[in-house]
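Retro notes
What went well: the complex prediction finally ran end to end.
Inputs used:
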Amino acid sequence: MTSPGDAAPVKPPPSFSPGVARVASTSPSRYPGEHEGTQSLDAELAESQRVSSPNPLSASIADLPIRSGSSHSRSGRSSTPQLARSSIGSPFDGRSDGFDDTRSSIIRSFSPTIAVHASEDTDNLVRNKGFKGGFWELVRPFGETVSGKVVIRDSIGSSRAWEDYGVRFVDFKGLGRAPASRDSGVLAQMEEVLTKQLNSSDGMFDTSIRTKDVLGFPATTSLCKSFLQQLLCSAPTAPHETFGHPVANVIVISSRNPAPLETLRQLYADGTTGDKQLPDWVNEEYLRYYVLVHDEERDDITESIKLYDQMKRHFGLHCHLLRLRSSQCVVTDDDSMQVPQCEWLSPAEHLSGAEALVDLGTDGTPYLFGSDATAIRAFIRELVVQSVIPFMENKVAVWNDQVASRRRGISGRFMSMSRRWAGFGSSSRSSIGGSSGGNSGNYDPTQHSYSPDSPEAILRKMADFAFMLRDWKLAASTYDMIRSDFGNDKAWKYHAGAHEMCAVSMLLNPLATSGKIKLDSVDQMFETACYSYLTRCSDAPHALRCLSLAVELLKSRGGSATESAAKWAMRVMDFGLVGSLGQIIYTERVAACYASKTPVGAAKWGGRRRKAGMWSMLAADQWLKAGQPTLASACLEEAEHLYADVLPADGVFPMPEMQNFVETLRHSVKVEYLESRGFDVRDEPASEDLLGTEETSEKLDMRHHRRSLIGLPVQLDAGAFNTTQGPLDLESLPNDDFERA
Amino acid sequence: MAATSKATIPSSSTIHGSISTLNNPKLLEMSYYFTILSPTDTPLFNIAFGTSKGGGDGIARFRFPETAQYMNQFIIHSSLDILEEAQWTNGGMYLKHIDTYPPAAAYITAFLTPSGARFLLLHQPPNLPSSTSTTSGLGSSSLLGTAGSTTRASSSSIAANPTSPQTEEAVRQFMNEVYENYVKTAMNPFYKQGMEIKSPVFRARVNAAGKKWL
């Protein structure tokens, strides 16, 4: 039974069974024609974008037998005349889509999920190295950025290299079993993390951390960025979107294992049966990848290679031999390096991580041998480039051909119409048959999910795959196709998710025009998604994610889109989706949205400086009330900067009550800022004077009053002068502008 | 529903409830803040008043009275961004509704005079208690009974809707009457352009126009 010869019971995964490969090889020839008819412009652009083959990487991939299906199709397509016209050096080639930081992190947050299922002996080996979470914890930080470029082919066959591709490793045991109670607490946890970040590193979030964009206005603050990242990665595995469903399952054994093939079979079986089985709504057609971890220090490499060859014979090419050292690495070792920090930590992990750091002191981050890190990086690169990406490309092509094109064609439309109106015709298409009435074909209202092999679920999965492969055009058209179906079936979460992702992928598509009509429909989709999430499903975390995506993506579009970005940010506050600190962050976002709308022409037309300034002032006021004078002074500085262009005189507001408010705010920010830095302001005679005569002096002469404020830090010693950098800038910047004007 | 949003609902609704005319049958009372700005953005004249039509007492009740003083000015000042854009695209003197400040549900309507002075009217519908907003199809049954649903509810009833044609027309009449009085005041030999308007007669007339039309 356990002899290597009859290890046949491990069924080869469907992904590399020959039937699938053959289908893949035929599919691309069919659907490019479909696209060319309608989107000739895009096809042309994509063509110019194509870096034609002298890429060593794609060539080497094409040599592999596993890629045979796709490499055939590529050569078949390159015989068409239009491919010969491909040009190198178009403006699209060199441009990485990471030109916008926020945009890039949004793109990276929707990366493929890879489950890690390690045997007990492997986890023990890794635990010896100091990683308590086992193999999963060891590879996770390395998965967030795959080293080197990753080349992905989209649905019309053009390749594109991505520098910042990443995958997300999750523990197989925790997958799909996120406790439902946490679902409601995510927003509260995020607020808690915010509070912690503010308290623990009071001086850290200084003005210097704010990244300034070209215009000198802060694009994002670090707080806001971490808020967004937590929000994007906190979504639990859910039926209505497949980003959290595993694309691949990595099955890991170590060389210490006494019965390797038996263990592999057991681990494989865990995925389909038993108590570790994934929920019903997860599609079982994911890639299985087998890894043998070789212990460099204790085991014989010849034995491991023998075993590895055996694995290759049984499981095909989705195998890897990972050579690691089993002893723990300490800082003083020759070859030691620090394990990179995880970028995508959910709020819960942030909270527990912060506690762990306190416990362990400075020794929180583990170290790793450089050779181990290199081996892991190579493993992840091979896994992603040679197995996961081709698998996803194949799947998208197959589903596009078999499900989507049928749905797109005239008969598919008729089918869905007849299903909607009459109730016949559903049985012919739904694979599980026997549904609960003609109206709601494949949707199971009790489970709130579609079965994974229904056309709706497959189309959603295909769109998600296309999205993760960064083929936003295909993703947008697929989401667009299915979003009304979900509404007809009253599958409201699916409905909301499809609308949300349709709008997001339309905004991410760099080739799409930013016409007014397009933006209107995008706005409409966000509106629908938000309404479905909030009112129909009462799913606040998803609604917040949807609106935040809307804010950030519309803001990065620029132009008139920034106004709707500001509108969505105000909507977030209006709905009460965020706590009191979150409110302030979104107030800052509104200011940033308005500030990013730049005036055009000599007449300074179409700027939103006054609005941005007002929101910054409000943010400063709120930060001050929240007891964060450092942040308040940064906001105040920004507001002064924004107002500098539009006010007739420097720092003087035309309206008396506004002026009063701003003067009071300036003063109290200054006082609290100095107090927080350890200066007892009441000892200073100047400030005493200020505190007492504040009201009257403002009314007598406002400009003069400001001068007296400037004088305050100068009276302190030189050390104090340096630490009060923020308020000093605040005074000096508008003065410069005044002199220029 | 998240714990955070639950926590905010009662607090915000109690605040709104205390401000708004909770037990007042006259639910459609608007609050107005009217400003005349010189071409250099200096305020020449300010007045705050409330609805007088339909039995209103003509007293402004802004939603957030503790901040209304400066917030109204902030809102009006920030709407100058939009005004500067709208004055080139709209040929008329009356620019209608140009801007909204959603957090306070404040609507700005603008009027341009040939001399460059700007009339800006901020109007704020009252915050309806959500129990009375039965007319709204979507918002009233919202799970989050926060300001979002109530503003939607209030804006769906015609008389309180600041962007409805009736309101626009009423504001136009008001603006025209104020303009007439403004011209008369500005022609006073003791008035220099750009000076603050302190005339009690003018104030009384603006008040009367407000009573008459709004």
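What we learned: The interface with chain A takes residues 1-5, 7-9, 12, 37, 40-43, 69-70, 73-81, 84-85, 88, 102-103, 138, 141-144, 146-148, 151 of chain B (CB under 8 Å).
What to try next: split runs per interface for comparison.
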